[in-house]
Amino acid sequence: MEVWVQQVVNGLAIGGLYAMIAVGYSMVYGVLQMINFAHGDIFMLGGFAGYLTISSLNHTAFGQDARFAVIGLALLAGMVAAPLAAVIVERVAYRPLRNAPRLAPLISAIGVSIFLENLVLRLDGGQPRYYESIFPRGGLVISGVHIAWGQIFIVSGAILMMLFLQGFIRFTRQGKAIRAVAEDQKVAALMGVNVDQAIVVTFIVGAALAGVAGVMWGLQFNQVDHYMGFVPGIKAFTAAVLGGIGSIPGAMLGGFFLGLAETLAVQALPKGFTNYQDVVAFTLLIVFLVLRPGGMLGEHLAKRA
Question: CA 140 to CA 282: how far, in whole Å?
Fold first, then answer.
């Protein structure tokens, strides 16, 4: 029983990362009805920004307590670098195609994804970069189940950021503008809403969460590379579909559900099949698309935010 509970803890940690990335897919789709397949690479850029920040700061020179400040600076770097890249991508690759057939921005998104991967490959040389082991070691042990501090940080951080984002969308003026644009761009513009600004803010918010997830990924798994955004990005898109594309709570629910499904399936599968967690994720996607295409909370198109 302890082994299964341990897998639940592991699943919640990886699910929190999927959830933070999935929000970007869900928000952009909710506003533009477009799948931003470059979003996984925005997550990758956030991970590299955190790596560069941590590697450039010698926290040991200021004592062990300085590592918390370094973690905070790394998260801030991810929250700045990823949205900056997302704004440039939106302005250059997506805005000119806003009124084009749906296939055009989809192809553009795939092209941007390939471009970003190869740009980082060219600049970084293609070698994996390793995060310092900066998280405090140890954690909580409850009835034989070990919960690392990093896992607590990821799950609690994901939940807090989702609550903050939900409050931003529901109660702020800019959040109301995003909801208005999601309902009807033309009517929102007639009522004085700056449509371009609302769309840019949507990209910024989703990218900020992806950037934080990239740094958390590096802190948890101690490695980043130019290709790291592909599989987590596709899985986060899967999580958004499972939860209900266009819904922020759905993205969160889908992320945690997918993380749990992967880890529990690995535990249940025979020994020779433990590397098949990706098969589990995409099998779930197919099942939901066939049986419940709207996801667990339903596809949000009229009230996307």
Answer: 33
